[in-house]
Design a protein that fits this description.
The protein is mainly alpha-helical. The chain is 59% helix and 9% strand. The chain is built from two helices and two strands; from the N terminus they run E-E-H-H. It has a two-stranded antiparallel sheet. Strand 1 and strand 2 form a beta hairpin. The longest helix is centred in the middle third of the chain and has 30 residues. The two termini are 33 Å apart.
Length: 66
């Protein structure tokens, strides 16, 4: 496990600091973006019936994330 030295109290784990909050937020963010893209594909194909435009719609969705 990775340890970070504190000044006088000895080593503490990285998992007990603020890093764990960043890691959890990043995990939930990745899951939510993947879920959104999957639902968007399903909506475009099943409800809008425009399979031929799916690629353009996905490019328009993911391009701002780059």
């Amino acid at each position: 496990m990775i340890y970070k030295m504190k000044e006088a109290n000895g080593p503490t784990s990285v998992w007990h600091g603020k890093f764990i909050y960043l890691w959890v937020a990043s995990t939930f963010s990745s899951i939510s973006i993947s879920t959104y893209v999957t639902v968007e594909q399903w909506y475009v194909i099943n409800y809008l019936h425009v399979k031929s435009s799916l690629g353009i719609i996905l490019i328009a969705t993911t391009l701002p994330r780059v």
